[in-house]
Amino acid sequence: MFQPLVEHFVQWCYYSKDYAFIRDSKYGIPIVQSLHLTGITLLLGTVVILNLRLLGLGFRRLPLPLLSEQLWPWMKRGLLLTVCAGILVFLPDPTRYAHSGPFRLKMVLLCLALLFQFTVFRKTVRADVESRLRNTLVASISLVLWFGVGWSGRAIAFFQ
Amino acid sequence: MSVLPLLNWLQNTGWATALKESALVFPFIEGSHILALSFSVGMVMMLDLRLLRVSFRSQPVALMMEQLMPWTMSGFGIMLLTGFLLFATQAVKAWGNTFFRIKMILLILSGINALYYQLRYFPKMAEWDRAGTPLGVRAIAVLSLIFWIGVIACGRTMAYEL
Amino acid sequence: MFEMSKNVTFQGTVVEYNWENPHTHIIVRVPESAGKETAGTWDIEGGAVNIMAKQGWTKTTFKPGDPITVVGHPMKDGSKGASLFYVILPGGKRLYHDIARPNADGSAPPPSQP
Description:
B: mainly alpha; C: mainly beta; 6 strands; globular
């Protein structure tokens, strides 16, 4: 049912002159991919710090409220860079990604990760009262989702 | 003296050959390399931001370093180990690849940068943290960010040289 | 790196068949008789082991000395390298690099990248 819509969107992307320069220039693609990876570095760095703290495995001498307050803006900046660069990775070569199983999985996991991040996760890292069980559960889910996004992204080049 | 015979030997070892031909293990190693790099360099960036007094200003540098180092080092460990394994699978080609060479130079510069910090600024950390961050420390932090983003970019661009 | 909207076709002999990650490489020598455009030694870049295997490739699909007919997307800088599109086996069967991706207007196949 979605197939014709996807195909139409894909054609529009590929033939759009605005993004052709990324594909046609010598370093366009590696540059946007590097920006994507730099965003991921910021995003994962901050998310992993917070999750390790929730799990009690690290950063125990830094109060959780301080960590979340200081890291949240950088998490958002990393996320913004990752998503914007990701769009620029996708647009010049839409058929490759649209028809990739791992890419589709990545998008599903990304939606779940974002939803979780800005609801349950945010509440948990800003909570006045911490619960051991809740922290462990939330951190585990967060790590699985974000690393799931990361792994499925890498899988695009190796699996169909 | 050429290293090519050594590199050739390396990429023809049983384990390197098995790794490069494997359907699952290779993607796992490569994915680990990139994800380990991501979270550990991300943590280094947070430390650099503290050195630049952009974030975590209320916390002593010493505390930030102490808290970040164990996990950063673990990530680096995975990154270096998986990096070596990946290198071994195409040692000759990687050695000749311009972006690989730049990446290694940047990694070494990054290490020198960190070592310089250790020797020059680490001993009197508590003092200058109170008095005002020296220009040298800020420079080290900025260089750290530049070098690591460079490593990421070169790592990615390696694939685009045949 | 590759001009994905162009195809180049040539026949030659396999010099190396490297079944490996992240990209399988086939080195092909094309004789002088094929003409200036395609004569020489080509480096054909395929896909990851798993992706090629899904298309029917194996570690022993080719070996040095085998004849080979290749259709690929040439390097942008004109050097003798190409991204594998497909090979034609004796008997006419095509072995593709990766799954076919539709292109509604029927023009040259859409790109894929390293």
